[in-house]
Every structure is written in C-alpha cells, then in structure tokens.
Specification:
alpha+beta; Peptide Deformylase; 2 helices; binds zinc ion
Length: 111
C-alpha cells in the first residue's frame, strides 16, 4: 500500500498486490527513509519514473506509473517484498556506519 499524500488525501491510497516493476526510466538522487529504520535517511539514486504491474483488490491486473516520489515509493516497497531495504542501494561504507550507529543505539536501549 502506498500513499504519497501522507494521509492528506484518502483517495490517493494505492493498493498493489504482488507488484512487479516492469519499466524504469531516468535517475534521481534524493533522501530516502524507511519505517523499518526509523530516524535514518540516506541519499539513494532511484529511477525517475517507474511502472509497476500488480493486481488490485478485485484481482484485476493493473499498471501504475509514477514519477519522482511515487516512482521511489514503488521501487522501495517492491524491494521490501523481495527482502531488500533501501540500504542495499547505498555504499558499503555508509551501510556499515549506519549499522554501527544502530548497534550503539540498541546497546543504549534507545532503538
Ligand atoms: Zn521501507
């Protein structure tokens, strides 16, 4: 489920079942975060525009295309279904730094 209106517009909610990315175009680098890694954000390069194919709640095959934030959300959420977090797309050095910070926060009981 994707809502790039951040709950401002109930009609903006998109439900995609078993989505797969079928087309991408361009590149866009922007800050990205994830509810699975609260308080962390990193610059991630993603496609500027994305088309996903999925089923809707009625079981019909649909295609959803989006640019910029919606494109980022489509690849981010599809990554989750494939067992990936956005940190798979940052440098190993940045990823290790983030892991160290998380370990420290866990040790301090703050995460
Ligand atoms: Zn996420």
């Amino acid at each position: 489920m994707i809502d790039v209106s951040f709950k401002e517009d109930p009609d903006a909610k998109i439900v995609l079942i078993n989505p797969e990315i079928i087309h991408t175009e361009g590149r866009l680098t922007s800050n990205e975060g994830c509810l699975s890694l609260p308080e962390f954000r990193e610059k991630v390069t993603r496609p500027r525009s994305v088309t996903a194919r999925a089923q809707n709640m009625e079981g019909e095959t649909i295609e959803v295309s989006g640019e910029e934030l919606l494109a980022r959300a489509l690849v981010h959420e599809t990554d989750h279904l494939n067992g990936k977090l956005y940190i798979s797309h940052i440098s190993a050095l940045k990823r290790d730094m983030m892991k160290r910070k998380i370990r420290k926060l866990v040790k301090q009981g703050e995460w």
